[in-house]
Amino acid sequence: MITIIDYGVGNIFAFQNVFKRLNISSRIAKCVEDLKEVDKLILPGVGHFDYAMSQLNNSGMRERIDELVLVEKKPVIGICVGMQMMANKSDEGTLDGLGWIDANVKKFNELTIQHHTKLPHMGWNDVKPNENHPLFKGLEQESIFYFLHSFYFNCKDQKNIISTTDYGINFASSVHKENIFGIQFHPEKSHSYGEKLLENFAKL
Amino acid sequence: MLRPRIIPSLLIHDKGLVKTVKFKDHKYIGDPINAVKIFNEKEVDELAIFDIDATVLGNEPNYILIEKLANQSRMPLCYGGGVKTVKQAQRIFSLGVEKIALSSSIIQNPNLITEISEKVGSQSVIVVLDVKKKLVGGYEIYTHNGKKSTGISPIKFAKMAQKLGAGEVIINSIDNDGMMNGFDMNIITKVREEITIPLTVLGGAGNLEDMKKVILKNGIIGVAAGSLFVFRGVYKAVLINYPSKEEKNTIYKSLNI
């Protein structure tokens, strides 16, 4: 079953509600005992990098999640800070990231942003899928998502990038490496576009 | 292209939704959960919900209600009302709210902006300033539903809030609240010149043209409204509404961004 990781960092029920409407069964994991019969994992996140990392590290689930993702190769999708946590480290904090994808999380350079409003990057922006990626099936023509962040995922290997978004620079708004996916925007709060993307993830 | 945000703003009083005029004369609108459901269907950009009782009565935020609202909301949600501590803010985040609006507590203790943003990230810390024109000219921040004057200039405070780590400033005009005769363009321009974090304006929108005017002048900005999205017609019959995708696209096109 699709398992949403609840480590006290928001948005859990929003995901569950999306899956309910899609008629896809999902469940919430609050402790390691809940991480049984996992088909796919969702790692949500809002807030500060270090806070999210320490919450996950202290959840009692960290080791098992690493095993599910890195050994058993279960598909996992990290959302917003959940994506950023998949990097090696972040300029926002001092704790180590999960290191699942070779990347560092960097702050946007305000000087590259042309309009008066700079950071955070807040609101609805276009997501341009790079290729016919299954995650963006049906979203090739129009793909607008809600963003709320000041830091972005800076991949070492450009091949990991599956969509870009323009905010002063073209940054990686989503990434993919083997069974690991990360998206910077909030699909759970992006109406029909977000629902479509989560449905695509569920069907992978 | 990052788009300007068009945001319904809802007020909770005595567990129901109300709409005010100049922060007075509460008119009952309906049930908050039901309103969230309707706004979901209308695919709104963002939703702001303020509990206008919590601070005045000295209550804790109503976590049960916030959780219900967050669970129902398929759009980004901003909650405000009675948040005074880092702990309360974290608890509200864990319920699935994206943004927390702070007002009276940070006006009393501006360093709270830093304390909360260090924990939850500054992108989620929203500073709401209820402002009123002074008789002698200029503007002043009020708290406690417009009842307590502070003597503080919103222009100066907005600038300080950005420095302390706020992620957005909402300017809420008490004079224009519920009047539906346009935004106070003067204070919007003044605050905007002082900050580069997102600015959202609230108070006075009577039609889409009013919103368009603010967007054309300011580009990337949040335009919020209460009455416009809950009333219809001169007799103010309750009818939840929101511009269609096509109507929004017309506004974006005229922007040329």
Report on the structure:
The complex is a heterodimer of chains A (204) and B (257). Chain A is an alpha/beta fold and 204 residues long. Chain A has helices at 12-21, 49-57, 62-71, 81-84, 191-203; strands spanning 2-5, 26-29, 40-43, 76-79, 89-90, 103-107, 121-126, 128-129, 144-149, 151-155, 161-167, 169-177, 180-183. Chain A has an 8-stranded mixed beta sheet. Chain A has a 3-stranded mixed beta sheet with strand order 5-6-10, with no helix packed on it. A two-stranded antiparallel sheet of chain A has the order 7-9. In chain A, a hairpin with a 1-residue loop joins strand 11 (161-167) and strand 12. Chain B has one domain (5-255): TIM Barrel (Alpha-Beta Barrel). Chain B has 11 helices and 14 strands. In chain B, strand 8 and strand 9 (148-149) form a beta hairpin. In chain B, helix 4 (86-94) packs parallel to helix 6. The mean pLDDT of chain B is 95. The A-B interface holds A 8-14, 17-18, 46-49, 51, 81, 92, 110, 115-126, 144, 146-150, 166-167, 186, 188-189, 191-192, 194 and B 1-5, 40, 43, 45-46, 67, 70-77, 93-99, 118-124, 167-168, 192, 196-199, 218-222, 257.
What amount of the residues of chain A lies in strands?
A: 25-35%
SS element count, helices of chain A? 5
The 3D shape of chain A can be described as: globular
Class by alpha and beta content of chain B: alpha/beta
